[in-house]
Amino acid sequence: MKKHSGVSYTHIAALAALGLPLAGRAEAQQAASNEANVAATQTIAEVLVTATKRGEVSVQDASISITAFDAAKLERLDVLDFDDVIVHVPGANFLDNGGPGRGTEVASIRGLSPVGDNTASVVAQYLDGAPRFGGSYRLFDITEVSVLRGPQGTLWGAQAIGGLISFRSARPDPTHFDAEIELDSYATEKADDMSFRIGGHVNVPIASDTFAVRLAGHTIDEAGYIDNATAGVHDVNNVDESAWRISALWRPTEDLTVTALYHGGDLRADAPSFFDIALADRQSSAVFAKIPAQQRYDLFVLNLELDLGWGNLSYNGSRFDGENEYLDYERNAFGFIPLGRTVNTLDQRSWTHELRLSSGPHGALDWVVGVYYDDLDEIDTSIQRETALAGDPTSPTFGEGFEIMVLGGPQTMQELAVFGEVEYALTDRLSLLAGLRYFDWSVDNAQEFTYFGQNFQQATGEVGGDDVFKKVQLNYRPTDDVLLYLTRSEGFRFGGFNPFVGPALDIPERFIRFDPDTLTNYEAGFKTSWSDGRVLLNGSVYFMEWEKIQAVVRNQPGTFAFTANGPDLEARGAELELIMQGLWLPQLYVAASYAYTKNEFTSDASIFENVPQPPLVRKGDELRRTPRNTWSLDVGYDFTIGGRLPAFVRANYWHKDSTNTKGFNSGDGDIDVPAHDVVNASVGVTLDAWRLKLYVDNLTDKTPLLQIFPNATNPAEPAVASSIRPRTIGLQVSRRFGT
């Protein structure tokens, strides 16, 4: 196929020509229905969340810093990927963790992110109550995304040290049949081919008001946009992804609901989405064009809800099986021609169980108690073999397929916790909340590190501990439209092992283990409603202390990396959210967010003895990749065409200040990353059950740098980086069935 550098507008026009006559055969909307829709847009719809573990609670009644998106808000923002959501949460953004294909983004909340790319995330993520659900964040048939800012250690446990993201899929409905099919075709700058997505769901009642099943899924054939200049191959980063969900809901009595869900996913990528900064038009100089990767997972979730009258009993259990494999190549592994070809695999198996009891209808005392257990077995390995350059007649130095390095192996992580929160109404307007979580954790590590036949593994075995984390909060509601709260909360991450230490690697043996790190948050927040519910204004200010930060550092020669506990960090900031609907025009919607974040290390960090000066981190240095200011804006206007056809026009924008990559690990470089500014827009029309939408993502075709690898000769200059997808124009056609 002949290469072109722009969007295929011919493809877009052809698809529109097919879709418009098809939609035009539907009957026109009645004027009375339009009037009802206009009236409904004059106030902001209430968004209910389940992430507080107290049933469905309105966001405005939840006395925590939380931003939530229901199905309508997700559709308004044209959400498909995880990063489409997170950039509209004050103080939150995403980082690319450098993996293959899609779904490699990790969340950063209030400027907190993993100090090293191979340390655990500081933001926990759950799908339908399960803490693991594969590596892809493509959303389909999701009815709730809740982003909780600040540590959530009391109710959610380990890894929620900086915050929590909870995804909830649509549940089967035994009261009626409904279905939807969605066809999406889009063209991307620099991509030779069109991309296609087909998705949808069907909800089927089996027994009226008692039993129903729901099937949902999507499949994506996404064209790449990065050219390999070395091999002369175009669009090397193609992605094929399929994901599906089967769920069943059984309600044998009015008091008992049983829901079973099966999630599955399969993602294949031809090459990672990295390009060379020195080359124009997002080109790569990788020696091999095909560097494939595959991610597959199966997730089973069982949820039981029993109304006891005086309280509610719930159980949520999950079983996760995941397999990941991807290739990587070391340039000049020995300083000359041969390369190191590394096969990275991660196999995970886990069981989680949570049994929870909460109070019934709200009275003077509102409480929730529970027990949680998590057992994760994983085998994480990297095996590197020598590979000759393609077309090079020189034989490999040590023989083709020579095993250079073996890193990794099995590891088991377990957590057992008992938790609870109690809120007592001191007066009609004032309440006091107290919570705690006792947890016992362990890590059993049997990994190895073999380099050129020499095994550097040390005796590892099991390490663990227990602790108690607390939360206390004061809530005050001076009027029905104003909620004020003061909070002190805590969070934590597991400790772990460095299975290879010792004089041979110039890593002192005292670093064979690293301890948990903890975070304490002090926060004051408010939630307000104005103009008869047409304006919502929420905000908070906070101060956080992050102690014994887990960081990835290198030994003195800079040849090997390991994890250690670094210095403490202090962070402070402010967040603001504003939502307006129908304030000036009945059909005008405006949502805006702003956050200010500043953090600094409280002491110098040399990590271990004999490290040359200056220290890796100095007192006053900021955590890498932390933008000082972030903001977003979402504007939408609904109108009618000819007084009969509902239509809309929408645009959203997000900004992230410039940052720097400097960290503990010298491999991070010292690179100034420019500020990010991205604009998306869409227009659409509805004709009865049909809807057509034309959209543009990354309207100005920006290339914000995400994951960055520094230049070997000048660490202040980037060599290889990844970014968001270039300007993409798409047409989406959907058809609903049933009610």
Q: What is the subunit organization of this protein?
A: single chain
Strand content range? over 45%
Number of helices: 5
Q: How far is the N terminus from the C terminus?
A: 44 Å
Poorly predicted runs are: 1-40, 333-337
Largest sheet: 22 strands, antiparallel, barrel
What proportion of the residues is helical, as a percent range? under 10%
Describe this structure in words.
Helices cover 6% and strands 54% of the residues. The chain has five helices and 43 strands. The strands form nine sheets. The chain has a 22-stranded antiparallel beta barrel.
Short description:
With 739 residues, the chain is mainly beta. It has 5 helices and 43 strands. A hairpin with a 2-residue loop joins strand 23 and strand 24 (454-455).
Give the SSE map.
Blueprint: H1 9-24, H2 31-40, E1 48-49, E2 57-58, E3 66-70, H3 71-76, H4 82-86, E4 92-96, E5 105-109, E6 123-127, E7 142-149, H5 153-156, E8 163-169, E9 178-188, E10 195-207, E11 211-222, E12 227-228, E13 239-253, E14 256-269, E15 275-276, E16 283-284, E17 293-307, E18 311-330, E19 339-359, E20 365-387, E21 403-425, E22 430-445, E23 448-451, E24 454-455, E25 461-479, E26 482-492, E27 496-497, E28 513-514, E29 518-530, E30 535-547, E31 550-554, E32 561-565, E33 569-581, E34 588-601, E35 629-641, E36 645-656, E37 659-660, E38 672-673, E39 676-687, E40 690-697, E41 708-710, E42 718-721, E43 728-738
